[in-house]
């Protein structure tokens, strides 16, 4: 069985950033990644200082190379389960067995989960095909690239129409030509007045599909058959965390249903940390990388604190330091 100080589950910006910090701290680290990053459809990554416009695949490739260069182990696969165990040896420590779907098991003292989230988008023809290309969700990630073009904003579920309206007001900052598609949801008089006051067009008909021509989004088709020409469309997806592993470990949740972590990513379960979109739906790539770095420092400090009493006992007995405490 392979034994590690830390196993990082998820090899995106948060996981690789954490692994880089930990390997530079001379920790024995494994990163397990399924190879399905959330931003895979995006051609470029924006707003990351020093890497603005870089394809996200290139950022991850560089990160993997850096982690491997410091001795980190990069494993392709999916974690099936994480269970508590007691590490054997001269000094028993609490740890975890990380079981992979291929049947292998990693034993580790600490776990960092950075498995991200998945975006649930409207079930309309064309949505999945254009997702991350010209059907977009984050204006800070993509707004500048579609600035001053005819833009649309899709309304979502009727009980979340206020969220979609707020999104439309935000998108208005990047273009003077913005249309809000209510998709049949009713607006209050105040909501409609605010949209009109900011020169945001309102279309009340239901949307039937996104129109795609020559592999580009060209408009939004309505129930009546009318097509409203748009160069790009924004939608606020429903964010669903990939937190099954954390839930099965018994990690406590916020009232929102998301797993609760403290300022450094520590969950309610001793030895388990989490970072990035798995616990923070608002985290962009640069934010996730920072959270991973902060969690890594906290984890290393936690390991040092665990080793201190063992070192004292060894000193009093005249025994050598255990390898993991050197």
UniProtKB/TrEMBL annotation:
Keywords, in A-Z order: Flavoprotein, Oxidoreductase
Reaction catalysed by this enzyme: [thioredoxin]-dithiol + NADP(+) = [thioredoxin]-disulfide + NADPH + H(+)
Every FAD/NAD(P)-binding domain range: 4-291
GO molecular function: thioredoxin-disulfide reductase (NADPH) activity
Entries under Gene3D superfamilies matching the protein: FAD/NAD(P)-binding domain
InterPro entries attached to this UniProt entry: FAD/NAD-bd_sf (IPR036188), FAD/NAD-binding_dom (IPR023753), Ferredoxin-NADP_redctase_2 (IPR050097)
Statement: the UniProt record of this protein carries the keyword DNA-binding: no
Designated name of the protein: Thioredoxin reductase
Native source organism of the sequence: Nocardioides psychrotolerans
Phylogenetic lineage: Bacteria, Bacillati, Actinomycetota, Actinomycetes, Propionibacteriales
